[in-house]
Design a protein that fits this description.
The structure holds two protein chains of two kinds.
Chain A: H1 2-29, H2 32-43, E1 47-57, E2 63-73, E3 78-85, E4 93-97, E5 102-107, E6 112-116, H3 132-136, H4 140-143, E7 145-155, E8 158-167, E9 177-183, E10 189-195, E11 203-215, E12 218-228, E13 233-244, H5 255-258
Antiparallel strand pairs in A: 1-2, 1-13, 2-3, 3-4, 4-5, 5-6, 7-8, 8-9, 9-10, 10-11, 11-12, 12-13
Chain B: H1 2-23, E1 24-39, E2 42-58, E3 63-76, E4 79-81, H2 88-91, E5 103-105, E6 109-120, E7 125-131, E8 162-171, E9 175-182, E10 191-200, E11 203-223, E12 228-247, E13 250-261, E14 267-277, E15 283-291, H3 303-310, E16 320-329, E17 334-343, E18 349-360, E19 363-373, E20 386-395
Antiparallel strand pairs in B: 1-2, 1-20, 2-3, 3-6, 4-5, 6-7, 7-8, 8-9, 9-10, 10-11, 11-12, 12-13, 13-14, 14-15, 15-16, 16-17, 17-18, 18-19, 19-20
The chains are: A alpha+beta, B mainly beta.
Chain lengths: 260, 396
């Protein structure tokens, strides 16, 4: 009996060591592509519903607060955002399809739907430091950037993979490159630095994510702050509610649904 | 038995009220604006206050109701005689006893602007009641919109509601059929529209057919029996289409409508535009508009042309025009811009510098100047007044 116990004890110890070693070894071997694929899975779940509060702190220190609901499907390929507050933008809605290559906006005051061209992706979303591209660009981390793995670093008290994302030549996205610090244990980017479209040395924005919670099986940053270095403004995005893997129909991502 | 019925009725009433109150949303805005214009050596002002109360309710998962009530008051110069802004050549044709008939009055008013029920069936949506009808892709002009005429100085302002029954029927994944019936006295005089909407690549398109009775007035003849200018209604058939998409990195759109008229000459309208946002967030846009109902030579502008334009019966007096807009967010809260309208036909021009400031979450200030730079008798002439407008709007 004692002999049996000893075997079990040794087996448990070996298994624990294996569990500790394998991820570390695996992590060390992970390429930039593999890491960004993991990040992309977290950023773009199969489907999601969220209720968010967005607070803009302007250059002059004034605050503007928005509340909206958002739905996404097909790994972020389809997105719908509907504003509830403030009254000025109540029921305004934005539909983004094909990773925000097609954008429609609904203005309830005039009951008009306007299709925006891709240049509109550069525009600030409700004057915030997030552009439409930042909000609905889906899997562009994979399709539009080439990841280069830099040395691991500690960022905001977390051990992180550090990746440089270099924009591909045929991409028309607004950032020439990005530097990402990705938490090793959950693949959530804790910091992303964005660089100017034409000047890859000019650091224009920084996204900082925090308050990471496990929602279902997906680690989710409940708070994201975009710091705009050029304008000296910032926008905080707080997730008030989030649900993943919901049965959302394609009909939800149509002009008909936009007007509802 | 009576007592029993009374209790049931009271309970039903309580139940309905509670349910309705729970689901009804009340919102809207208050808008105060001052419009001023310099005519000759005098500067005139018209102030208005508008309270718009919207309410909406989801009666069930697929039935909703929305309405809004407008209360508008006016102060200042409430009566404007159109003849004062027209050239002597035009006004000399008007007899002195008719001069007072060309006065436009701004009177306090309150009205139910929109009130409609929307039912979402599995296969289609039905909207019944007084509702805004927005047709076309044009920004300043919409050749296909026979129900509204936009104010070129403020083209994104909300349009009035129209009585209509509208069905939006998706056909497959790519197409939608929109059918609209806007009832008048008879079926024959009612407005009807059939529109097919679709998408190809990054372009959306529509094909549209409309029949409507167009209520023109003859502003040279007064109908004493009806105490108004003589009405000359005419059946109008419009066939056309619109598209919006992207070309060479710019947003592009076009809208065309051919008008087959029952009595007068047929004509067409075309609007085509492009826009772009620079990295600096500066937004530029230009739109060309041709309306062959408009005249190519300003010497041919008649009293009827002017009056129909002032009363929005006709969208324009001049044939070819270009509208442009440039806007830049100077700060997170302040947008400065300028728009302009150039008549290519009579070479007159209006410049409209604009300012938009977000004072707080629910308060915004909008101001624009309206500078007409054109010789007398032209579409945008100095004699029609130079001025501007300040609008403060608070949302609740």
């Amino acid at each position: 009996m004692q002999y049996k116990d000893q075997i079990v004890k040794i087996a448990v110890q070996v298994w624990t060591i294996v569990l500790l070693i394998i991820p570390t070894a695996y992590g060390q071997e992970m390429t930039g592509e593999e890491i960004i694929k993991k990040v992309n899975e977290i950023f773009n779940p199969a489907s999601s519903y969220g209720r968010s509060k967005m607070t803009i702190v302007t250059t002059s220190g004034q605050k503007r607060t928005f509340e909206f609901e958002s739905w996404s499907k097909d790994g972020g390929e389809k997105n719908l955002v509907r504003y509830h507050k403030p009254g000025r933008v109540k029921d305004q809605a934005t539909l983004m399809l094909n990773h925000a290559d097609d954008i429609w906006m609904f203005f309830p005051r005039t009951q008009r739907v306007r299709k925006l061209a891709t240049h509109a992706k550069k525009q600030k979303m409700q004057g915030s430091d997030f552009s439409y591209e930042d909000m609905g660009s889906g899997d562009t981390f994979i399709t539009d950037f080439t990841p280069v793995r830099l040395g691991d670093e500690k960022m905001n008290e977390k051990i992180c993979y550090k990746l440089e994302m270099v924009r591909k030549e045929d991409s028309d996205l607004s950032y020439s490159r990005m530097i990402m610090w990705i938490i090793k244990e959950n693949f959530v980017p804790v910091v992303i630095d964005y660089y100017d479209e034409k000047d890859p040395v000019r650091h224009i924005k920084r996204l900082v994510q925090s308050n990471i919670r496990l929602i279902g099986s997906i680690p989710t940053a409940m708070r994201s702050v975009m710091y705009n270095r050029g304008d000296n403004s910032q926008t905080e995005l707080e997730l008030l509610e989030i649900k993943y893997d919901l049965p959302l129909s394609d009909a939800m991502f149509t002009e008909r649904s936009l007007k509802k | 038995m009576k007592k029993f019925l009374f209790i049931i009725i009271i309970n039903c009433f309580n139940f309905t009220s509670a349910g309705a109150q729970e689901g009804v949303e009340l919102f809207g805005y208050f808008e105060s604006q001052v419009m001023g214009t310099k005519i000759g050596k005098e500067f005139f002002q018209l102030q208005s206050n508008k309270l718009r109360v919207d309410l909406s309710a989801d009666l069930s998962d697929n039935i909703s109701f929305a309405a809004n009530f407008d209360y508008i008051t006016y102060d200042g110069k409430k009566q404007w005689n159109i003849l004062e802004y027209l050239s002597d050549e035009i006004t000399s044709t008007v007899s002195s006893e008719m001069e007072d008939l060309y006065v436009v009055s701004f009177s306090n008013r309150q009205f139910l602007d929109n009130a409609y029920i929307k039912v979402n069936f599995n296969k289609f949506d039905l909207t019944l009641g007084k509702q805004q009808i927005s047709i076309g892709t044009g920004y300043t002009w919409n050749p296909l919109d026979v129900f509204n005429t936009k104010d070129v100085l403020d083209p994104t302002y909300e349009q009035p509601g129209h009585n209509a029954l509208r069905a939006d029927i998706p056909i497959g994944k790519k197409l939608t059929l929109n059918c609209l019936y806007s009832p008048d006295e008879t079926w024959n005089s009612s407005g009807k529209m059939v529109q097919v909407k679709g998408g190809v690549s990054h372009f959306d398109f529509t094909v549209t057919a409309i029949e409507i009775l167009w209520s023109f007035h003859d502003y040279t003849q007064f109908d004493t029996e009806k105490s108004s200018f003589r009405l000359v209604p005419e059946k109008r058939h419009v066939i056309g289409g619109s598209t919006v998409g992207e070309l060479l990195g710019m947003g592009v759109w076009a809208e065309y409508g051919y008008n087959d008229m029952q009595m007068t000459d047929n004509y067409y309208e075309l609007a085509a535009g492009a826009d772009y946002t620079f990295d600096s967030q500066t937004y530029i846009m230009a739109e060309f508009y041709r309306n062959t109902l408009g005249k190519t030579d300003h010497k041919n502008y008649s009293l009827n042309d002017w009056m129909r334009q002032f009363t929005s019966e006709q969208k324009t007096i001049t044939r070819d025009q270009v509208y442009f807009l440039m806007r830049h967010p100077v700060t997170d809260l302040l947008d400065l811009g300028t728009s302009g309208i150039l008549s290519l036909s009579d070479k007159s021009f209006a410049l409209i510098p604009t300012l938009n400031y977000s004072f707080s979450d629910n308060m915004e200030i909008m101001a624009y100047l309206n500078l007409n730079i054109g010789r007398n008798g032209k579409a945008y002439s100095e004699e029609s007044g130079n001025g501007g407008q300040i609008r403060v709007r608070v949302y609740f």
